[in-house]
Each structure stands twice: as C-alpha cells, then as structure tokens.
Automatic annotation (TrEMBL):
It is found in: Cell membrane. It is a multi-pass membrane protein. Keywords: Cell membrane, Membrane, Transmembrane, Transmembrane helix. It holds the Pfam family TraG-D_C. This is Conjugal transfer protein TraG. The lineage of its organism: Bacteria, Pseudomonadati, Bacteroidota, Bacteroidia, Bacteroidales. Residues 176-287 form the TraD/TraG TraM recognition site domain.
Length: 384
C-alpha cells in the first residue's frame, strides 16, 4: 500500500495524531518533531519495492529501539542526509533531547496500535483515486465517537491522500462531503476549497458552529475556511457565529419612520439607515426547517437573489420510499469458518496483528544483518 509513503510526502504523520503541532508558530510541516515519521514511511517505500509500505508497519518500526532505527535508515543513501541531524544528536550525547523530540510523535502514534486498526490499514483493497474515469468509486467512511481522536487521525490520513489524487485535471466530477468536520483533522482543507472547483470537485462541509472549527483547526486555518467557501446554508446558531453570518450577508438601506406626539400636534420624520439584511437576532431564533444562507453563481448561470431566508421543505414520504428501496450492504468478509460454522473474526484480526509485528522484527533483523555484512556500513551498528 503506497498510500502510507505518499501521505508522508505532504505532511508528517504526527500532525494528524497530535493537533497541537498545528498551533506552533514555528511548525513548517517538517521540523524535528515530524520529519522522522515521514522518513520511516519512505524507508518502507524503498524496502522491497513497497511490499510492506503500510501505516501499521511504520508504527511498529517507529516503536523499535533507536539503536536499530537510525543505523537502518542511515544505511540508505536516499535517507542519509535527512537522518544526519538525528544521528549527530544521537552520537553526540544528546540522547535525552532527541528522545524528547521523537517521543512527541511516538507517544500519540502508539495510541493507534490496535489489532482492529491494523486490519483496516494493512492491505490495499481498492485505489484511492475515486474519480478515476476508468474505475469510479463511492467511498464512505465513518468515525467512532468513543475513539474519535484515534480514528480521526487515520481518517485524516486517508482524506489527505484522496484529496491529492482527485484534485486533478481530466477526472470525473466528484464531491467530498464531510459531516461533523471537527471530529477529524483535514490537512490542506483550505487549499482544497480554493482549487477544487476548477477540477470539478465539490466540497461540502458540515459542522455545528464556527467555534468548533476554531477550537480544532486554529484561528488562522478556520478563518481561511470560513472566508473561502462560496455557498453557506445555516440553521439556528448563536453568539459569534450568528454575528459573523449576519456580517457576511451584508446590509441594506432601510427606510425608517418616527412619530412624535405632543399636546399641540403630531410630527412625522423619515430617515434611511443601513441595517443588517439578516440580523443576528433573527439567525439565533430560527425554527426547525428554516435556513439562511448565500449562494454563488457562474458567468453563464446568473443568480439575482443570492441571499435567502426561507424554509427548506422536505418531502418525508418520498424520502421514506427511497430509504425503503435501499439494497442491503453486501458482506465482503463474514469471517465464518466453513468447516466449523464459527465466526473467526477476532482470531483472524489478531493473527494479522501478530503477523505485522513479526514482519517488522524480521525486517529489522535482516537489515541489521545486511549492514553487519557490509564493511562500509558495519560501523553504523557499533557507534555509541
């Protein structure tokens, strides 16, 4: 599965697992905390032509002792220069600082060690270029609320790779629909929104409130996402989100009349004032089914009324008829042992988990043996 390697070229895997890296002012996507993770996956891309290039193999390799990792990676000319700062720190007696740097990526990644996640991410059942004209695919993935932070990192890794593959010319029209966006970290989301339209990729993002986006993506990236989208549909929201939407919808010149009554006469005065087209108070008191929003148009498809405040009517009867006609999802693998009739899912998943751990141990052993038998590389194993 080359997906693991390609993902590492765009960002470090630790970014997806530990979102706090995003908020660091000096984070460029390849600092000391993140760079090793990408080189581990590049090693598996090189090793035996990517036969073991999966995310679980990379995690298991990362959990090996540093005395095994650094000599193996340094023995490859393609990775030697990238690993030289870490080798210098390791050989120069700065093991504590080096361990602190790598542990910042290692500790969050170890939370992803589970037989179930290894089963999902250890094989390649289908390609991720889902809008390929020769083999279009509909891909649906879901998160587990109980393990949101763990699975959200894995989903973010898949999403980032998918975006790179589908956001290209000469592909089929496609859509990226993400509900509850803050539950996953989507690296490069702002760039996708800005460029996907020209490649016929529609991006639909759903979340409860702007504050969620700021909390999980940071103020800067959240602001870019909010200001880049062209179409907005919003139900009832309050606070800063309602104010932001009201400002986005703009103001309109409204005519006002005031009446003054005293004992002698009644006076009327008229004036005009710029007021919010849809005030925050109106947005914060919308009932179910009522929406406000704004839409964008094209050169050849002009929309005169771009801002709306209306009720979206749902035909419940037709929706029910459609859902009743759904075909059941086919069973890809039922894990049933045909000889005994028992479900062997847990045993099969555990065997896959044990196989990956054994393969990484064997890779480390073979690589150390290769280095030891090479007079030019042998000193790497004995440096202290």
């Amino acid at each position: 599965m080359l997906f693991c390697y390609h993902s590492s070229r765009y960002f470090s895997v630790c970014v997806l697992v530990n979102r706090t890296f995003v908020y660091l002012n000096d984070f460029p996507g390849g600092n000391l905390s993140g760079q090793p993770g990408g080189k581990f996956t590049e090693f598996f891309h090189i090793y035996q032509d990517g036969k073991y290039c999966t995310f679980p193999h990379a995690i298991e390799f990362l959990c090996r002792p540093y005395a095994d990792i650094f000599p193996i990676l340094t023995s490859y000319p393609e990775l030697e220069n990238y690993l030289s700062p870490f080798m210098d720190a390791w050989l120069g007696g700065a093991q504590e600082q080096l361990q602190g740097q790598i542990a910042s990526a290692k500790i969050p990644l170890t939370r992803m060690i589970s037989p179930q996640l290894y089963w999902v991410m250890s094989d390649s059942e289908f390609p991720l270029d889902i809008n390929n004209p020769e083999r279009p695919i509909i891909l649906c993935v879901g998160n587990n609320p109980d393990r949101q932070n763990i699975y959200g990192a894995a989903l973010g890794l898949y999403n980032s790779r998918i975006v790179k593959l589908i956001n290209k010319k000469n592909k089929l029209k496609s859509a990226v629909i993400i509900d509850e966006l803050p539950t996953i970290y989507f690296k490069g989301l702002d760039g996708l929104i800005a460029t996907a339209r020209s490649n016929k990729v529609a991006v639909c993002l759903g979340f409860q409130d702007f504050s969620q986006l700021k909390r999980d993506y940071g103020d800067k990236e959240a602001a870019v996402v909010m200001n880049t989208v062209g179409n907005i549909f919003s139900g009832q929201v309050v606070g800063e989100t309602a104010k932001t939407l009201s400002e986005r919808f703009g103001k309109v010149l409204q005519k006002r009349q005031s009446i003054s009554i005293n004992r002698q006469d009644v006076s009327h005065s008229f004036n005009t004032q710029m007021d919010s087209l849809i005030p925050p108070s109106k947005i914060s008191t919308l009932t179910q089914g009522m929406f406000v929003g704004a839409v964008s148009d094209n050169f050849d498809e002009r929309i005169e009324q771009k801002i709306f405040h209306a009720e979206i009517v749902v035909d419940s009867k037709k929706v029910k008829e459609e859902t009743d006609a759904y075909s059941p999802i086919p069973v890809i693998n039922d894990f049933i042992d045909k000889s005994t009739g028992k479900c062997e899912m847990e045993r099969t998943i555990q065997e896959n988990y044990n196989r990956i751990k054994a393969e990484v141990k064997r890779i480390v052993f073979d690589e150390k043996l290769r280095i030891a038998n090479d007079p030019r590389l042998a000193p790497l194993l004995y440096r202290k």
